[in-house]
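Dear colleague,

Following up on Tuesday's group meeting, I ran the structure prediction for the two-component complex that the binding team flagged. I've pasted the input sequences exactly as they went in, so you can double-check that nothing got truncated or mislabelled along the way. The structure tokens for the whole assembly follow below. Feel free to forward this to whoever is handling the docking comparison.

Inputs:
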Amino acid sequence: MAGIATNSWRLPLDLALREVASHRMRSSISAFAVFLGVAAFLVMTSFSRGMEAQNSKMFLQMGGAEVVTVETMQAKDPNEEMLFAKSPGLHLADFTALKKRVPQVEMILPQISSSLHFRIGGRHVRGMAIAQAWDNFDVYNYSFDTTEEVNKENWDNGAAIALVGSRVAEDLQKTSGKVIGQELSMESGGRVKVVGLLKTTTKFDRRSMEIDVPLKWLLRELGTANPVVSSSSVKVRDIKELPAAVIALKAELLSLHRGVPDADVTTNEDLMKESQQTIEVMALVTGIISAIALISGGVGILNILFASLASRIRDLGVQKALGATPRLVFRQVFMEALIVSGTGGLLGCLTGLLPSLIAKNALPFQPVLSSVDILKGVAMALGVGIGAGLLPALKASKLDPVEAMRA
Amino acid sequence: MTEAVIETKELRKSYFLGKEEVPVLHGIDFVLPQGQYGAIMGPSGSGKSTMLNILGCLDRPTKGECWIAGRDTAKLTENELADLRCRDIGFVFQAFNLLPRLTLEQNIELPLQYLGMPKKERRKRVAEAMERLGLGERGRHLPNEVSGGQKQRAAIARALVKHPALLLADEPTGNLDSTTTEEVLQIFDELQNEGNTILIITHESDVACRARLEWHIRDGNISTIRGA
């Protein structure tokens, strides 16, 4: 005859499954709490990772760490408004001056987007029009498809041409039946011809809504070489010179604006940090929600097991009398906890995977999950099962069969 | 001479109420030879349940020796006691003690699973035991779906299925009507005739008198009524 089955897992598993099945409602509620915890953890992790990846992409679109943005500040109160009124304001010429005065500045990236609107016939074209120089395309990592030759020379000479993003193109296609070759007009009468499409990754890409025109064309249309700008950027020679460049830029702007601090200087790194902080806060909140759900699941499992032990203490005594070793009884009760938490965890993992599988075009970013994240989700569920199952299993394994059968 | 399945020497058991020692068994010498059918009879509080627990390896003596199937239970670890219960002792309880979530068939199979027996052999033994106890059609029923007599038959089948050295029955007819009691006692008679070693603990004289050997236990002392 074979030896006593102290090392068997199948028998305790079989008995544990029967026990869990006999308390379907209680088991389901506890499994649901574990499910919520794991699903929330995985969904939000996939969102965080997707947003981080999106941020990295945006960082490249923003020209990387060497790009510094200078923008007009909004007055916070009437006193500041009066103070800012003494400044000539931020003009395009300020950037040319900054290039000359601040040695750390390698190139200026002039850009005008405010008060720039296009129409087809009488209808407003939805999109964000930006007039910029050709160099910006390189620094901001643009890429595009064009049907006719678009190059630095004709762009910087102010050719009447435009490049549009995918959503603008869709809009043009719907309203006028064509994109390439379509003429867009400004209210002042100036016209540009769409000659190409900006390449974008998703419809949520900021560039899908852009209408890019040559800066020189716009200046000619506006009839001025020095228009007011709300913000524009410069590129610093070396990332190591960034702190010094920011100080110098602020000082020169004060000097150019008659000592009025109405322009702020922010680095792309600052913007990235802000965005990263938002993601971190989101991850923290998610962690707390997941932890609460998982603890609830654990307490639920603990509750089920203790209630279940109390109601079948006699059966466990009988099992021991029939020859079940303490180890077998321990495994049986422990597995009940693992079955409940494992079921919740498994369903949580499947649900957590869904956004990264099906949300490709429904969100501004692609949720991302790694196999390590899935393993973490499984480990969390099993951790809850182990934590909640240990005490009841130990208690059951130490039952005195005589006392238990008297219960 | 026939080998003894149970042998106790100066067996004593005491419980403690706080610091006060309450002796329950006072040095019992007892032998049940292999293949014999014995009964220990006694009133409530006589110490017969304590005796049963020690003989069934569910409890240990405070002093003295208790040999079951050739092993001194006082010297065994908890796991070794479980092993001894699993291999050599078949229990039949007054309250049947079938596991409510298992069918009769599964209840009977459980001790064989504890022994780690292969499935094919388990199924064969279960079928034999059920046939032997007349439970042929009831195997897939849960305990709450059958009568008291059928429950006790299943409990006897569960005790017998592993071919134990000792069949230990604690008031096996206590929850049965007179007709079913007679049926169960008839089964014990047959089992004894087949060579099984049986010890019944009871407070009913008409149950005890069916055994070949009989002892009375009173106030923790044992006396032989009918010896070998």
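Residues 10-59+274-406 of chain A form one domain.

Cheers,
M.
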